[in-house]
Amino acid sequence: MQEAAEEVGGADLVDTYLKSVGRHPMLKIEEEQEYVRTLEGGKAALKEIALSSPLAIPRILTLGRTSKMAGQGSGCSPVPGRVARTVRG
């Protein structure tokens, strides 16, 4: 009985979704392509800005080291704002 009630509830959600989607016109292919170009351009600009920051290289190196250590099962996790230091001996 509960399964039947869940199916009806799921059907109601789908019906509600389809009705709400139907209220808005679909994008034309040209509009969709323009949105994609805008998003991709924004991603590229953000990447360029982030990588030009003097803080980026140490942070990227730290993330790389911690991800390697995590892959080896060390239980290490990245700590935001901390740069790993190499101990020489």
Describe the structure.
The chain is mainly alpha-helical and 89 residues long. It has a domain at 29-71. Helices cover 67% and strands 0% of the residues. The chain contains 3 helices and no strands. The protein has helices at 2-22, 29-51, 56-71. The N and C termini lie far apart (70 Å). 0% of the residues are buried.
What is shown here, in short?
It is built from three helices and no strands. With 89 residues, the chain is mainly α.
**Structural class of the helices, strands and pairings?**
mainly alpha
On the 0 to 100 scale, the average pLDDT is 77
Unreliable residue runs? none
Per DSSP, the total helix count is 3
Number of strands: 0
Oligomer: single chain
Estimate the strand proportion: under 5%
SSE order, one letter for each helix or strand: HHH
Q: Describe the global form.
A: flat
Itemize the secondary structure elements and their pairings:
Blueprint: H1 2-22, H2 29-51, H3 56-71
